[in-house]
Amino acid sequence: MSTLKIPSKYLLYILFIFSNIIISKTIYVNNTIQLKNALNNALPYDTIKINKENYQFNFLEIKKPLTLVGINSPTFDGNNKGTILIVKSNYVFIEGINFQNTGYSFTNDFSAIKIDGANNCSILKNNFTNCFFAIYLAKSFNCSISNNKIVGSQKRQTFSGNGIHLWYSKNIYISNNFIEGQRDGIYLEFTKKSTIEKNISKNNLRYGLHFMFSDSCNYSENIFEKNNAGVAVMYTNNVKMNGNIFRNNWGDASYGLLLKDISSSEIKNNYFIKNTAGIYLEGCDRNSFKNNQFKNNGWAIRLMANSMENTFIKNIFLGNTFDVTTNNSKNYNTFDKNYWSDYNGYDIDKDGYGDTPYRPVKLISILVENNKTLLILLRSFFVELLNLAEKLLPVLTPETLIDNHPLMKINI
Amino acid sequence: MKILATVIKNQFQDSFRSKWIIVYSLFYFLITFGLILFTNDSNKIILSLMNVNLIVIPLVCIVFGNVFFYNNREYIIMILAQPVDRKYIYLGLYFGLTFAMSLSFLLGVFLPIIFSFKIFINNFNIIFWLIITGILITSIFVGIAFLISMLNENKLKGLGISIFSWFLFTALYDAIILMLLQILQNYPLEIFSLTLTLVNPIDITRIIIINNFDIAALMGFTGAVFNKFFGSVVGFVIALFSLINWIAIPLFIGLNLFNKKDF
């Protein structure tokens, strides 16, 4: 049945495009009044071309399916008074416009573009500067947000909103956006079946990516860098993360990737580089972590004891201060066939796997987990002696948290 | 001053004539070269060199300084018969040996690194600190060795105390810190632990290096206390001041004892 469904969907698109070419007309506008008139007078599927000028208005509603195209990037200025554009119709395309100065509010979600209950909209190649929220989608389906550049300039979380904010949406495609200096770079809540790929989200005041209750979404080849609290995702099933880079998230409460109550998800081929904590898992079950690379992190994986049945297979751990740490002496997760740069074993039977198992949890990491001050004894001779003793005779470290087939060489 | 320079020069030459200093230098050369050859991973090399700095240098310096002082007893008595100020003799012996040991450390570690500087390009600041702290640790532990030999006539007892004080600085002190921090873990301990580490020269060295090396983990420490402290000029000066004190105080006490000593 599904094979029948797809062509019909395409047919609709083709019909739509043709109708556009045949019927629609193009309106050119030069100032704010002309723009408002054009929006009132235009017929559905018309194109409004906007010349390079400074347009100042707030709360302008688009109620018809229209295409707004900026010529040489005109500016829509909100004068710090509130939301700029509100899209309430399906099939609205907005391309090549600079949005700026929405102003902030503690009671309203002022945003540069608010798409409210509209489907099949596209927002392409726009710039957003100094906006509270940049792109805000609520109860909208099948939209695409691509190639936008969003730069916030606030210093405090309360004066700043999210770069791309999705609420109760479905089938949204977010790609190739650049987001900097907002509160959360990309925020999803109750959003299903969406794809987020090739975005760059960095230097945000809180999270680079933040989602809750957003099942079945794909995240691939994004870069999350130097966000104040890293990336945090919660209460979601069936997440797929592939080929993302989590880099340079430093701080006590900063995580490369914080997973809370995430289950049945796949996290593959990602890079975690120089984070205070690469991955932090709390209450996460049945997830698969495969072919990820953890390099020069403070903690590669912080695995809280309420996480179960997660599998860590064929990951690469290079030069992390602590490879794995946990807060309990019990473990219900599987580590197998990973490469550990700290592994000192041998491979006599030449099958590529070390003959002695590797214990990624050191005594000091367990101690530090309970008493952070002990970090000052890191790499002390005495602590190394303790680690060695614990390795030979595990007392505090979980006995089952063990990699029985540590890889001898990195091979992917 | 001229006399001091002459004594230092003599001592320096004499040290290099004895084969031990050459062996010491070769030891570093082989370790560094071997590490570079076999691991090719700058992180692992730096970690091993740090352990050399923290464990091997103090041990060798304290034992060698001790043996050196006892063995040169006749020479010292002979030189005391000359019209030379006593403090010049002591300082000359100290600086002569320190220079010789620092130089052999420097040559042993630096030469292999220069040959393969490419793998260290990202970590050059850590190499710099390894060398500076290595020289400081050498100066500190030669001074302590001299002081111990001044306090003890008995060779065996002196050597025993030397080895014990090495163990105290490298391991026992950290064990005490660990115990204190575990017992008092319900209190705010940032300043307390910082103060404790600033007392031990080996801990200062270790923290200066890991502050560059394990930066990602240390940033996880509540409020990144260390990074703030050692990153700031004041903190850095305090750390350096503490290290220099560890050179100056044993040297000063040893010098006073030497001035009064009846050989």
UniProtKB/TrEMBL annotation, chain A:
Pfam family, one: NosD
Pathway: Protein modification; protein ubiquitination
Transmembrane segments: 12-29
Annotated gene: nosD
Domain called Periplasmic copper-binding protein NosD beta helix: residue spans: 159-345
Superkingdom field: Bacteria
The entry's keywords: Membrane, Repeat, Transmembrane, Transmembrane helix, Ubl conjugation pathway
Entry-linked PANTHER family: F-BOX ONLY PROTEIN, F-BOX ONLY PROTEIN 10
SUPFAM superfamilies assigned to the protein according to its UniProt record, in alphabetical order: Pectin lyase-like (SSF51126)
Annotated source species: Stygiobacter electus
Gene3D superfamilies hit by this protein: Single-stranded right-handed beta-helix, Pectin lyase-like
Protein's name in the database: Nitrous oxide reductase family maturation protein NosD
UniProtKB/TrEMBL annotation, chain B:
Keyword presence, Transmembrane: yes
Keywords from the named record: Membrane, Transmembrane, Transmembrane helix
Taxonomic superkingdom: Bacteria
Transmembrane segments: 21-39, 45-70, 91-114, 126-151, 163-184, 204-226, 233-258
Protein name per Swiss-Prot or TrEMBL: Uncharacterized protein
Species in which this protein is naturally found: Stygiobacter electus
